[in-house]
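Give me the fold.
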Amino acid sequence: MKKQRLFYLDLIRAVALASILIVHFNATVTGYFTLPHKLFTSTLVQGIYLGDFGSSLFFIVSGASLALTVPPEQSPWQFYKKRAKAVFPLFWLAWVVCFSIRFLSQPGCYTGAKTITLVLTFLGLDNFAVAAGWVGMDFACVGEWFLGSILFLYLLFPLLQRALRKAPVLTWAVTLLVCIPLHMQGWDNGLVAVHIPEFLFGMTFLTLKDQIKAILAPVLVLGLINLPVDEKLLCSMFSALIFIGLAAAAAPLLDKPLPRAVCAKAAKLSYAVFLTHHVIIQRLVRGFDLAALSRRDTAILFCVYLLATYAASEALLWLQCRLREERQKLFP
């Protein structure tokens, strides 16, 4: 039976998507934060980076969405197969298109990349590998480190799902005792361990009683104010707090036909946007003197960026659909 679509998950995914779109626009038009911001900030309370906040919200909402839609009786193999079909074809298609354009328009761009690193691209780990320090350069051109991180979390999902069902308190205790020290040691450059509790929080959220959520919110506020932890852990607490707030307060207020339609559309496009937006803004700023760019022109550029990203994402999904239809004709 098809699960009911929860509006608050679409709303939170839309907020996360907006955060990522804004922070990568900021990074590009400020020369990676060497110039003043002209439209939006890139930092939140306690110095939390807007990009980290958007990513953390995505990890939380991904955990919640999977907990809602994946039946407990589904085997790990079935889960991995479905996730692979959802992730890899669109990624490979976006990579082929963007790599071809970059290879022809920027000759020699990938001269320093070793051919063997194409394996990382095939696995969706090329940007992750660079961010983690596995390689200095590979054939990455679409997406972000986030894709590699979420793939590792997908690997853990069947285990976490079964563990939560049998022993939720023990699952949380083991997760925190393992993940926080690993993160503090810096073994993964903050790319996986710190996000496992976020993912687990999303999985757990659907089963939490309202009384527990009401207690958890002030506990998270106290943690944000008093705990001497790094910005990544602060971001995890802040993102969980905002997730609770959006689900409990904002979603009921905004649960009307237009916001529902807009957020559902954003949720549907979110993966394609994630693959295309960085390529779009990097191309759009060519030819601009970023230091001389006025606030008005920055605003116009932002609007063009949103429209171009929307168009590219729709086109990518359309192309995937057409290719799938052609494949079905050839291999019925």
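Residues 325 and 332 are 10 Å apart (CA to CA).
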